[in-house]
Design goal:
450 residues; alpha/beta; 4-stranded mixed sheet; 20 helices; 12 strands
Length: 450
């Protein structure tokens, strides 16, 4: 009897151990099938959802954490999550141009996994997809390995009101407007000559100095930090004079970007009509179009727009996807599949083709300029918003002219300090020398960089 009881008890213990083991295994499997994505908008999560829907063999659930970059909230939270590690750490994450170098070349680069370590033949992939060079420069670490790539190409152009161009120049043809503003000249001389013509007919050339700043900033030869010290590139320093010229001569409406008055100029209801804005394709699609006052030709300024080459080559913005070097190795193939589909797949089924042609959410969606030149070459950028003009005719070359070697990981903070000092100088609140001195002091006080 005792022997039989022992056998029963032993069997019960084994069953209990087996149940516990299975429970732990099931829990581990559930965790293993979850990928953590960190980002600052719902854009990339939306892409991931499309990938999963189109690939039923993809067995992972993607857990998304979205923290807006407002007030600098995203970076500290992301950094803390990366350093904490564990099952809740990001497996891959997004970084925008204002701070991406922190993760590809700067303080947090140690957490980035090179794309080659994900199993991507990266040199061949970049060549086959013809990825815009400046995006590769920005996404590469100090060893020359690619740690991040994006899906957009954000080379910039001059986006102008056709009716205002006709009023000032007698034509709205992109070739005429390009000649008037000095498109491709590498100089701002013709641009300010055009500003005088526009003033003579009661119009401004831009809404505010911020419209020039993004072109100036990202066309400079060097960034804010050189050999560990604060550096003011001569092209960026000249922005002081550009801003003051705009203000002293009434060449703009003195707006600040992302404020109500800036949006009013897109709708044509500002203090005076302005010719245009400097920006990439996303500025047309996600900023000017939603604020133009209409959704079809004849409503607001919809259809009254065109684009031409900027006086200088530049880019503005962009989002890079980066894998966490410390992720569970079992997740690498899944993370690679997602990143590869978004950043390198140039087939008609890849994200970039759908993004360029406005078909990600069905026909008739928003078209955008993407990182793959191979995709751009087989895509149609004609827009009713631009009176039928093919925007890719301008943006594809613009992507090649952009320079990705002048960024630093501190750009977001330093740009804010710089532009504040420029505004004070342009308004006559302080001298040019005082503005520069105060800029240097504020950077030193805020970032400890001299």
């Amino acid at each position: 009897m005792k022997k039989a009881l022992k056998v029963v008890l032993f069997a019960a213990v084994l069953a209990s151990m087996a149940f516990t083991s299975c429970t732990k295994k099931d829990k581990a499997s559930a965790e293993d099938l979850t990928i953590n994505l960190w980002t600052f908008t719902d854009e990339v999560p939306g892409m991931v959802e499309k990938y999963i829907a189109a690939h039923p063999e993809f067995k992972y659930k993607v857990n998304t954490t979205i923290i807006a970059t407002t007030d600098g909230a995203y970076q500290p939270a992301l950094d803390q999550a990366l350093m904490a590690g564990g099952k809740d750490q990001p497996d891959f994450f997004c970084a925008e141009s204002a701070f991406v170098l922190k993760y590809t070349k700067g303080d947090m680069q140690d957490y980035a996994m090179p794309y080659k370590d994900l199993g991507i033949d990266i040199n061949k992939a970049i060549k086959d997809a013809d990825i815009a060079g400046y995006t590769v420069d920005i996404g590469s670490n100090t060893k020359g390995e690619v740690d991040g790539l994006g899906y957009q190409a954000t080379g910039g152009a001059f986006i102008y009101r056709r009716s205002v161009a006709k009023k000032a120049f007698g034509s709205d043809d992109p070739a005429v407007v390009k000649a008037e503003i000095g498109g491709g000249s590498g100089s701002w001389d013709k641009f300010f000559e055009a500003a005088a013509k526009l003033k003579s007919v009661g119009c401004g050339i831009v809404s505010g100095d911020g419209d020039m700043w993004h072109a100036v900033e990202n066309s400079s030869d060097k960034g804010w930090i050189v050999d560990g010290k604060l550096y003011i590139d001569p092209k960026r320093e000249a922005f002081l004079d550009y801003s003051k010229t705009l203000q002293d001569n009434g060449y703009s409406n003195l707006t600040q970007d992302w404020q109500d008055a800036w949006f009013a100029d897109m709708k044509g209801v500002g203090e005076k009509d302005v010719l245009g804005f400097f920006g990439p394709a996303w500025l047309i699609n996600y900023t000017i179009a939603p604020n133009c006052g209409g959704t079809k030709v004849g409503e607001g300024t919809y259809g009254d727009w065109g684009i031409c080459e900027s006086p200088i080559g530049f880019f503005w913005g962009g989002t890079w996807l980066i894998a966490n070097k410390n992720m569970d190795p079992a997740k690498k193939d899944a993370v690679r599949a997602l990143i590869e589909w978004v950043t390198l797949d140039y087939s008609n089924d890849g994200l970039q083709y759908k993004w360029a042609n406005g078909t990600l959410n069905g026909e008739g969606g928003t078209k955008d300029s993407v990182g793959s030149g191979t995709v751009m070459a087989k895509s149609n950028g004609e827009l009713d918003f631009l009176a039928g003009q093919n925007m890719f005719d301008v943006f594809v070359p613009a992507n090649q002219f952009a320079n990705g070697k002048n960024l630093t990981q501190y750009d977001e903070s330093i740009n804010s300090i710089w532009r504040d000092q420029v505004r004070q100088y342009a308004a006559g609140a302080k001298s040019r020398d005082a503005a520069i001195a105060d800029f240097k002091q504020n950077v030193a006080d805020t970032l400890g960089i001299n």
